[in-house]
Amino acid sequence: MPTALTLRDSRADDIPALAAIYGHWVATGLASFELEPPDAAEMAKRRAAILAAGFPHIVAEGEGGRVMGYAYASAWRPRPAYRFACENSVYVDKDAGRGGIGRALLEALIARCEAQGLRLMVAVIGDSANSPSIGLHRACGFSMVGTLPAVGWKFDRWVDSVLMTRPLGDGATTPPVR
């Protein structure tokens, strides 16, 4: 992790930075299957919904208070039987990639979700050629569970989604406590 990096809960005043980070990847990459970058108001609504559902939403803050990336967990699926599983999202500023920020965020997110009693984290990675994200998740203990071939259409081509999972806490070895 970069020495001048602080991981903390996101705040409302982080929203413009989050929108800029995410907007870049929506407009230029395949990690997100959105076609138009959401504005700050939409990002604020999404953050509020995640927090209202009790999930963590964290940022990596660099020197001078600059938001270098963010991560959050959300419900894997809405049905009650899925309540011990979550999905993760990690986005790093385009100028700060490959510096350990994504890993620091993902490791912190995993720890927070384990502390909440969640038992499985799911990664849905856009594009089977997204080796940086696949490698990050593998380095953080995720295993490949499958690929949904040609499930999305973006930038005039079909795009896969890669599914990876990681047990949290005791995983499936014991009944959940809650």
Secondary structure: elements and pairs:
Layout: E1 6-9, H1 15-28, H2 40-52, E2 57-61, E3 67-75, E4 85-92, H3 101-115, E5 120-126, H4 131-139, E6 143-154, E7 157-167
Parallel strand pairs: 4-5
Antiparallel strand pairs: 1-2, 2-3, 3-4, 5-7, 6-7
Helix pairs in contact: 1-2
Question: Please, could you describe this protein's structure?
Answer:
With about 180 residues, this protein is of the alpha+beta class. It has helices spanning about 15-30, 40-50, 100-115, 130-140, and strands at about 5-10, 55-60, 65-75, 85-90, 120-125, 145-155, 155-165. Strands 1-2-3-4-5-7-6 form a 7-stranded mixed β-sheet, with helices on both faces. Strand 4 (about 85-90), helix 3 (about 100-115) and strand 5 form a beta-alpha-beta unit. Helix 1 (about 15-30) crosses helix 2 (about 40-50). The protein is globular and about 40 Å long. The mean pLDDT is about 95.
